[in-house]
Specification:
The structure is a single chain. The chain folds into 4 domains: 302 residues, FAD/NAD(P)-binding domain; 138 residues, Elongation Factor Tu (Ef-tu), domain 3; 89 residues, tRNA uridine 5-carboxymethylaminomethyl modification enzyme MnmG/GidA (Arc Repressor Mutant, subunit A), CATH 1.10.10; 53 residues, GidA associated domain, C-terminal subdomain (DNA polymerase, domain 1). A hairpin with a 2-residue loop joins strand 7 and strand 8. It is built from 21 helices and 22 strands. Strands 1, 2, 6, 7, 8, 9 and 20 form a 7-stranded mixed beta sheet that branches. Strands 14-15-16-17-13-18 form a 6-stranded antiparallel beta sheet, with no helix packed on it. It has a 4-stranded antiparallel beta sheet with strand order 11-10-19-12, with no helix packed on it. The chain is globular, with a radius of gyration of 26 Å. The chain is α+β, with helices and mostly antiparallel strands. The relative contact order is 0.12.
Length: 620
């Protein structure tokens, strides 16, 4: 019935979809196994993509030929570039999406991808021979052989849903949990843990009074995630903002004695940076209100996502608190919020390729590794799918560097440091974030993707042209001058010191207060010159001009750090023979088995003196 596949992907969430697409587009035969073909790429939580640091990840996936950015652009309700008041390293794209169309577009994209097959069933166990995965077994007794397997089980592994004092098995509301895999893996020596996440109630948008809320529109001239010219919706939809109050908080407190989080019925740790409303009230008792984002679920539905009101309190308490929020006085609830507890596997049990250390050709990606968020999951699935293909074809693995991508930071953090709570990406986690901007993801990563066969020659040529054109603009500003009489009135209006002499455009543009558009208004020659270039290229040139000295300094730091990253360590190195290492360092190094000296230096508990000892032995 089944042929032997190159790659079997278990789970069709964001990680599974990107894994299947990546491996298939590189030439592998792929089977995507999901418990429900109708929920492929389901947005289980909020109907949005991107955000701070997450938006950078989506752009990186797109730059390398992944689908997340394209699907998001096709289904966007509104688009916003966050943090524009800060430097470009902090600019983060975010889109509100149509939940149903997002899933539909993902399924269509996969069905149109050659080499991807589908099977609806639950994988109950793996087929393992001589510490090597060779296939999967399903709940109806089907055995399917494969050269590699990628597990992307999301919140389904022994998932347990909590609403007040009620609890029942499930991987998502209305869907059953997945069983068998955790038990098998722990019997093989894997360490497992429990985590939890939550979701807010959904309400009927027709029952809300939007006049009591603040409108939140997207950007007037919206950007995009994808570097391709994918067709996007021309219309936009509004979101709204409202706030909780002391009455809401007091009502919620009435249910605390029945809260599974406070009574200890939930053992897993929840996401620190996306807490439930009851957790917010408990942790931030001094605050008399919390922000609530009122987000439409799509173009053709009245369902509303109540972002900021995630809860697992009893449904009657949820409702009584909800109707005390301004604008929600007559709200009708579609379904209550809930918490879900699920199994994960500490990611220190993986190599930087996301292959497990215990079982060859077995890869983990997404929430099974302790992360939270569609974007974090999608990026892991993408890399796991690539590496599964490379491994079975006996090619060198793809290991993303911290200095070249947020994806590299994410995977290095997980594998090297591990996580005991749901991991979420932030710009602060990337020490080289000035180099890892959302605007240059194509410049950073397209050559890598092209070498892997994931993007075309034509697409790489577009990137090369973008680099050349932005360099031409920079060169023009270095040689083209501007007179005091042209610039000084504009500079005074911008609270910038007037010129004392005629200078080059580059000098004026280097000032933080002055933008390219300001100069175009006063320099006709500059304005005419820029008419030949698109806005994205002009923006790239402006960033290069303003941050040139910072980029050079940052690159020097990267080059120095690269010396440690280039010092490879044999994965079979016996650290127990090095008596001069601290006991903690020996234990951690034996567990993590770092690939390079640089990775070893980031392991918690490994001190600089331990690294010095390692450096001496590696040099020998």
């Amino acid at each position: 019935m089944f042929k032997e596949y190159d790659v079997i992907v278990v789970g069709a969430g964001h990680a599974g979809c990107e894994a299947a697409a990546a491996a298939a587009n590189m030439g592998s035969s792929v089977l995507l196994v999901t418990m429900n073909m109708e929920t492929i790429a389901q947005m289980s939580c909020n109907p949005a993509m991107g955000g701070v640091a997450k938006g950078q990840i989506v752009r990186e996936i797109d730059a390398m030929g992944g689908y997340s950015g394209i699907i998001s652009d096709k289904t966007t309700l509104q688009f916003r570039m966050l943090n524009l008041s800060k430097g470009p390293a902090m600019w983060s794209p975010r889109a509100q999406n149509d939940r149903k169309r997002f899933a539909e577009e993902w399924r269509l994209a996969l069905e149109r991808t050659p080499n991807v097959d589908f099977w609806q069933d639950m994988v109950s166990s793996l087929i393992i021979e001589n510490n090597k995965v060779t296939g999967v077994k399903t709940s109806i007794g089907v055995e399917i052989k494969a050269k590699s397997v990628v597990l992307t089980n999301g919140t389904f592994l022994n998932g347990l849903i909590h609403i007040g004092e009620k609890k029942f098995g499930g991987g998502r509301t209305g869907e059953k949990a997945a069983t068998g895999i955790t038990e098998q893996l722990t019997s093989l020596g894997f360490e497992a843990g429990r985590m939890k996440t939550g979701t807010p109630p959904r309400v009927d948008g027709r029952s809300l009074n939007y006049s009591l809320m603040e409108e939140q529109w997207g950007d007037e001239n919206p950007g995009r995630f994808s570097y391709t010219n994918v067709e996007r919706p021309t219309e936009k939809r509004c979101c709204w903002i409202t706030y909780t109050n002391s009455n809401v908080h007091e009502t919620l407190k009435e249910g605390f004695e029945k809260s599974p989080m406070f009574t200890g019925r939930i053992k897993g740790l929840g996401p620190r940076y996306c807490p439930s409303i009851e957790d917010k009230i408990n942790r931030f008792a001094e605050r008399d209100r919390h922000q609530i984002f009122v987000e439409p679920e799509g173009w053709n539905t009245c369902e509303i996502y109540v972002n900021g009101f995630s809860t697992s309190l009893p449904e009657d308490v949820q409702y009584r608190a909800l109707i005390q929020i301004p604008g929600f006085e007559n709200a009708k609830m579609f379904r209550p919020g809930y918490a879900i507890e699920y199994d994960y596997f500490p990611p220190t049990q993986l190599s930087l390729t996301l292959e497990t250390k215990l079982i060859e050709n077995l890869y983990f990606a997404g929430q099974i590794n302790g992360t939270t968020g569609y974007e974090e999951a999608a990026s892991q699935g993408f890399i796991a799918g690539i590496n599964a293909h490379l491994k079975i074809n006996e090619k060198a693995p793809l290991i993303m560097k911290r200095s070249e991508s947020y994806i590299g930071v994410l995977i290095d953090d997980l594998v090297t440091k591990g996580t005991e709570e749901p991991y979420r990406m932030f710009t602060s986690r990337a020490e080289h974030r000035l180099l890892l901007r959302q605007d240059n993801a194509d410049i950073r990563l397209s050559p890598i993707a092209h070498a892997l066969g994931l993007i075309s020659d034509e697409r790489l040529e577009i990137v090369h042209q973008k680099i050349a054109n932005s360099d031409h603009i920079v060169a023009f500003t270095r040689k083209q001058g501007i007179e005091m009489t042209e610039a000084n009135e504009m500079l005074e209006n911008l609270n910038s010191t007037p010129l004392a002499q005629n200078v080059k455009l580059f000098s004026v543009l280097s000032r933080p207060q002055v933008g390219i558009e300001d100069l175009r208004k006063v320099s006709k020659s500059f304005d005419e010159y820029l008419n030949a270039y698109d806005q994205e290229t002009i923006e790239q040139a402006e960033i290069k001009i303003k941050y040139e000295s910072y980029f050079l300094k940052e690159q020097e730091i990267v080059n120095k750090m690269q010396k440690m990253e280039d010092k490879d360590i044999n994965p079979d190195f016996d650290y127990s023979t090095l008596g001069s290492l601290s006991k903690e360092a020996r234990e951690k190094l034996l567990k993590i088995k770092p690939r390079t000296l640089g990775q070893a230096s980031r392991i918690s508990g490994v001190s600089p003196s331990d690294i010095s000892v390692l450096m001496v032995h590696i040099s020998k």
